[in-house]
Write the structure tokens for this entry.
Amino acid sequence: MATVMMDLNEIITKPKEAIYQRKAEFVIENLKKRNINAFYHRTAAESIVEICKLIPQKATVALGGSVSVMQSGLLVALRSMTIELLDRYRLGISSEEVERIMLRGMTADVLVSSCNAITADGKLVNEDGRGNRVAGLIFGPKKVILMVGVNKIVPSLEAGLSRIKDVAAPLNCIRLGYDTPCTHTGFCDDENCHPPARACSQITIIESNRVKDRLNVFLVGEELGY
Ligand code: SF4
């Protein structure tokens, strides 16, 4: 049994860890050229420690809709901090309160979220249904922190846009119970997808950041969110 475990480590774990790290290092160099701070940690736990250090005590912290933030444990960590967390995931929260929180989030000190895709050359590609997340990434909160699993690194802009339609949006639609074509078939059918159910209402591409230290990407060597 011990031999089998060692072989699996050599065959699966080590090559995966190596490619995750190499891809992350390549992307980080390109993000920095775009004035986007970027870091790599092998695990979400290591990343969370560094992210929390970046958030000042008593800061107002908004959350952009993100499965990665929930899955990684970052949400739990934020809840334990001495900050004003605009917690849209609080149990029993009303839709009116979520609306109010989303509006306040536009002027928060910090926005914490993830990204649907990061291209090898360092562009941040996102889709949104309501628009509050992508709006906050672009303007408003003084600091933006994105926790992004390596599964979201893509070779090109085209691949990033495909990732949204093939992976991110269908899974989000299923999670949220939206009545969209991709919910029923798993495939996008753009022409036959209409609001209010349609999740893909805004698609944004961030090509660079003008305000020093505003955008911060934490790449994690794990598969996080979708
Ligand atoms: S456009 Fe509609 S069908 Fe296509 S991925 Fe988005 S929500 Fe799904």
Q: What stands out?
A: The chain has one domain: 2-220. The first strand starts at residue 37 and ends at 41.
